[in-house]
């Protein structure tokens, strides 16, 4: 089975998040990097991303993970929202856990919700929830599943290429159509196909992880 290592970036300035997907030996792993991950020079990972070219940023990630990363997908947050809500005023989502978007004090109940652009933006904007630091990563991954569902909802042979063509206008990528499909298909999990996940740092509310040796060791153990 072909191995893949693909970086997906949800681009949002200082709130940019990073998902490094690995398919190795039939096993799926996902490294989720917070924008608040501070490096040895005191700058955050999001700051580095904003300063570097994508090629130089992949070199930085290689030094952190010892992985050769060639494929990337960059989706600006607003373009992801536009893709999902194209020709729609609202979208049905299934919120995995209740939370409050603190900036606007918007309450999101658990379960089925209808959201407009504003609410979808709040749903996927990075924040550490008061009682669930990993909640934002769960919500952003849910948005990736929504993209997958949109791509695969019409099984006609002519429909999928058109939808991928529309997606490619909303993202920056160096991947072929087949590898894009593999990446988004990774979010269909069942049984032994479930993806192992590590969030770096493994955030706790009010705790700043400023010792890279800790999370670098976590990455090494996770990938071994």
Word description of this protein:
The chain is of the alpha+beta class. The chain is built from 8 helices and 10 strands. Strands 9-4-1-2-3-10 form a 6-stranded mixed beta sheet, sandwiched between helices. Strand 2 and strand 3 (27-33) form a beta hairpin. Helix 3 crosses helix 4. The longest helix has 18 residues, at 135-152. The chain is globular and about 45 Å long. The model has no long low-confidence stretch (mean pLDDT 87).
List the helices and strands and how they pair.
Layout: E1 4-11, E2 17-24, E3 27-33, H1 45-51, H2 54-65, E4 71-76, H3 77-84, E5 91-95, E6 99-101, E7 106-108, E8 111-115, H4 117-124, H5 135-152, H6 159-168, E9 172-173, H7 177-185, E10 196-200, H8 212-223
Parallel strand pairs: 1-4, 3-10
Antiparallel strand pairs: 1-2, 2-3, 4-9, 5-8, 6-7
Structural class: alpha+beta
Distance between the termini: 19 Å
C-alpha geometry: globular
**Biggest β-sheet strands, sense, barrel:** 6 strands, mixed
| Sequence of secondary-structure elements | EEEHHEHEEEEHHHEHEH
Short description:
With 224 residues, the protein is an alpha+beta fold.
